[in-house]
Amino acid sequence: MDVYEKKYPTLANMLQIYLNFTKLRFDQYQRDEREPEVKSTFNYIDYIRMNHFDAENGMALFEKFPYFCELPESDKSALFKRFREPFLLFERIYDTLNIVGSKLDDKYIMLQNGDCFNFATLNQAFMPREMSNVFKIIFSSWAAFLPVIRKMNLEIIEAVYIFCCLLWNTSYLDSPISKEGEEIIRRGRIIIHKEMREFYDYDEIKWERIYSLRNFLIKTEKFVAEYKKQVVVDM
Fold first, then answer.
1. What is the pLDDT of the chain when averaged over all its residues?
2. Ranges for the NR LBD domain (predicted)?
3. Separation of alpha carbons 88 and 220, rounded Å
4. Which domain holds residue 221?
5. Order of strands across the sheet with 108-110?
6. What is the pLDDT of residue 235?
7. Which residue of 48, 133, 210, 213 has the fewest C-beta atoms within 10 A of its own C-beta?
8. Is residue 167 within 8 Å of 68, Cβ to Cβ?
9. In angstroms, rounded to a whole number, what is the distance separating the alpha carbons of residues 88 and 112?
10. From CA 54, how far away is CA 104, in angstroms rounded?
11. CA of 137: how far to CAs of 48, 200, 202, in Å?
């Protein structure tokens, strides 16, 4: 961690935020006391509650994140509201691979509390039609992305770089960012790209991994936009 802080301070800051975030989860669900467990019955209400826990406890961790801490409160709220859904979608895959590793194959996803589900089980889960339409999109995104991310074998700095990119993405916002906020966000983007370049030693071949990561980000955002649209249709 000390090496990261000296060489990539902004990415290291995001890494510390993520470590603090996962500690909150481990404490909440006592995950450090037990191995991930395969379950046969998916409870979508429990999953929604876990997402609410993440959302309610997550924003406070960003209080000192470089550039984000300089934003007007309205811009912080708008960015975090947009950030949390693609973050939770991607992080579910990263967390699964990081904790479960090769113990289970690509047909399984792990939830925040450590419960693991086969995708076949998820697709047979009982829930109201309006929720089923949304979760089908979420499940299909997990099934599509998990083997791709496993193959890429992300380093932790690459993962937190994705978190930063998701945070600074101003697409799909419910409310516009202020002019002041746009300039702060622009500077925030520049510094994470610079640090990532340094992480790759300015090697153009290594940098090609970034194009793969960005392509994944675009697809993640599209999945989120798709299920948000479904929520509106079913309301």
1. 90
2. 6-235
3. 10
4. 2-234
5. 37-38, 115-118, 108-110
6. 39
7. 48
8. yes
9. 10
10. 25
11. 15, 34, 37
Cα angle 201, 169, 223 (rounded to 5 degrees) comes to 105
**Dihedral, 92, 93, 98, 100 alpha carbons, nearest 10:** 90
Q: 62, 80 in Cβ contact below 8 A?
A: yes
Would you say the pTM of this structure is higher than 0.85? yes
HSE-CB of 211 using CA atoms within 13 angstroms: 5
Question: How many CB atoms lie under 10 A from the CB of residue 203?
Answer: 11
Domain count, the chain: 1
Task: Round to the nearest angstrom and report the end-to-end CA distance of the chain.
Answer: 46
Tokens of 102: 């090769």
DSSP secondary structure string, 2-49? HHHHHH-HHHHHHHHHHHHHHHHHHHHHTGGGS--EE-S---HHHHHH
- Quickly state the pLDDT bin for 233 (edges 50, 70, 90): very low
Q: CATH code at 48?
A: 1.10.565.10
The pLDDT of residue 171 is 86
Closest C-alpha among 159, 158, 151, 170 to residue 92:
159
pLDDT digits (tens, 9 = 90+) for 111-136: 999 999 999 889 888 888 878 888 99
